Amino acid sequence: MYCSTVVHNRCSTIIICLYTPQNGCNIISENYFLNRVLFDSFDHPDIIMGQGTVGMEVMRQTKEPLHAIFVPVGGGGLIAGIAANVKRLSPEVKIIGVEPSDANAMALSLHHGERIMLDQVGGFADGVAVKEVGEETFRICKELIDGVVLVSRDAICGSIKDMFEETRSILEPAGALALAGAEAYCKYYGLKGENVVAITSGANMNFDKLRVVTELANVGRQQEAVLATVMPEVPGSFKHYYISDKKAVVLYSVGVHTASELEAMQERMESSQLKTINLTKSDVVKDHLRCLMGGRINVENEVLCRFVFPERPGALMKFLDTFSPRWNISLFHYRGQGETGANVLVGIQVSKSEIDEFHSRANSLGYDYVVVTNDTDFELLMHS
Q: Is the peptide bond preceding residue 173 cis, with omega within 30 degrees of 0?
């Protein structure tokens, strides 16, 4: 259940909206049709001004000179407010935005000099999952902020783990975003002996998402690597592991301490005639394929897609009604990520003459999706 408030412009009545994913929003108040005013959640001057008090608090509580403040960016209200406040008092302090690499509306907008709307936006850091930044927030950020850092999902998970180990506090992905950006920035520029602040803006975590975080945290800290090794299929090459009469592909994770240690290991594997591929950066592998290893098959006319299913009743049935029985569903792997949606890897047998119809139905479904039929990692692990 969530609460939000809307203030009437004349009588200042507070309206409470009780929201549940199952029942939607139920407004509890008398005469709530009278003179209601909608305040944008980030693109309103009063909202920006209120969020800017975070910057004021930071400056009041910081006794040493600051190099930079790192701020998570969704619609841009928080960073616009902080920048407007801090730059007025201390223009030398850098204001750096941080976005997930798959939700980078602000970075793209600043690059092009105008607001850019994303076709798709990653939902892992749901607190900043915005397709387009605000008009007013973009105007302020274009003038005042010093840059935007993009970070991966793995890096965010690593920062959640770091915060827990340091303070026993569990941040949501959007809350750990600025921490991941600060670390990436300091590492890239070799920053040492400077004071920086990272705004940790949320702790709305659930166990479904926490499970994903625990799987990826060590990858994000480069303490674990996901590798695939191609082995000759002869007796003794890998005990009791037979898939074909030519070669076997073994997918596994290894613990590492440094990047050079991993490189040395790969060189030793290659020198032993064991071709080894580093798949650590592949989301398809980490989300789906390491759960599907165990057999490979070539399916005729298989179109492979990654869908984002909304977490609500009827989502699966809506998907099935769209594609089945029109086409055969050859693969289906579901990975829940909490309330924001689930990543689903789907294989559907569609002939070339029916591709346009398939895309028309997929678009009408209304779920974000991307075709990954030619993904090289999928080919390696599932079709080779």
A: no
Dihedral-angle region of residue 144 (phi above 0 means left; psi in -120 to 50 means alpha; beta otherwise): alpha
Query: Which regions of the chain carry the CATH code 3.30.70.260?
Result: 294-383
Q: What angle do CA 165, 227, 370 make, to 5 degrees?
A: 90
**Alpha helical stretches, state H, the chain:** 45-61, 77-89, 105-112, 135-144, 153-167, 173-189, 207-220, 259-271, 283-284, 290-292, 315-323, 355-365, 376-378
CA 228 – CA 247 distance, rounded (Å): 12
* Torsion angle defined by CA atoms of residues 8, 11, 14 and 20, in that order, rounded to the nearest 10 degrees: -50
Q: What is the mean pLDDT of residues 311-323?
A: 89
Joined tokens for residue 379: 């080919």
Second-level CATH architecture of 45-220: 3-Layer(aba) Sandwich (3.40)
- pTM score, two decimals? 0.69
- The letter for the amino acid at 126 is D
Tokens of 294: 């165990």
**What is the average pLDDT across 148-163?**
92
Note whether 25 and 18 are within 8 A (CB). Answer: yes
Give the contacts of 79 (CB within 8 A, at least 6 positions apart): 71, 72, 73, 95, 97, 106, 137, 141, 145
Superfamily of domain 294-383: ACT domain (3.30.70.260)
Q: Are 82 and 51 in contact (CB under 8 A)?
A: yes
Average pLDDT over residues 150-166: 92
Angle of CA points 60, 63, 65, to nearest 5° = 105
Which of 186, 182, 183, 159 is closest to 170 using CA atoms? 159
> Which residue reads 């935007």 in tokens?
148
